[in-house]
Fold this protein.
Amino acid sequence: MRRAAGGALRRLAGAARRRVSPRHPHWGNLRRRDPFCAHWGYTRGTPVDRVYIESFLELHRSDIRGDVAEMMSGDYSRRFGAPDVRVHVVDVDPRNAAATVRADLCARDALPPGSFDAWVLTQTLQFVPDPEAALANVRRSLRPGGVALITVPCASPLAATGAPSGDLWRLTPAGLGALCRRAMPGARVDVRGWGTLTAMTAFLLGLAAEDLRPGDLGPSDPRYPLIASAVVRTPPAD
Ligand SMILES: C[S@@+](CC[C@H](N)C(=O)[O-])C[C@H]1O[C@@H](n2cnc3c(N)ncnc32)[C@H](O)[C@@H]1O
């Protein structure tokens, strides 16, 4: 009798140890087929990827000045750019009433050459059928000494919308760097990965930044980039 009770106690103690051990996973309600939010976490708060995208733009505020091209809306240029920034909204989508430049990024010479001081090209390259052609067009549309601020998702659920051709690609920071260097010869390219294992997991689960602790988002871990950013600078005029 006493031996049986001792065995039960030992089993209970073992189970309790496993519950608190960092080596033992606690799936709880994380084992699921559907995310907590199917819209990138928006119904819960700030999508985790947006925290990194906006930190990147914040870091490069001083580059968002003069004539700035931005995809889909001018929100980021107005929020992070100089007060007198002139925003040009680019989109292929004919339903986008905010667009002032209606262009397919992949169509050669679709953009006015040498027209912009900066580009805010966030979360778009994954939708374009030919990202190299798109970047070459972006490069041609920049003035000498211009800068393109680019982000792409490294890990993300597939987007149901975003472009006629659908959600096509994921890039790593090194892949984004290689693509920019190939498409924009002569430009200076600086790439960076943003994310942590917890941030990446939370984003895939449809959780928001508000579901996390501040320390969960950084410092970024190069093994788990959620997004990649690139700063591409064209050479100044001679
Ligand atoms: C998800 S939005 C990205 C921009 C937004 N500011 C952001 O940060 O999420 C993608 C935009 O790219 C546009 N787009 C997709 N493929 C395109 C293409 N080949 N040429 C021009 N615009 C394109 C879509 O219509 C859409 O407005």
Summary: Residues 34-233 form a domain with the Rossmann fold fold (CATH 3.40.50.150). The longest strand covers residues 142-153. The chain has one domain: 34-233. The chain has six helices and seven strands.
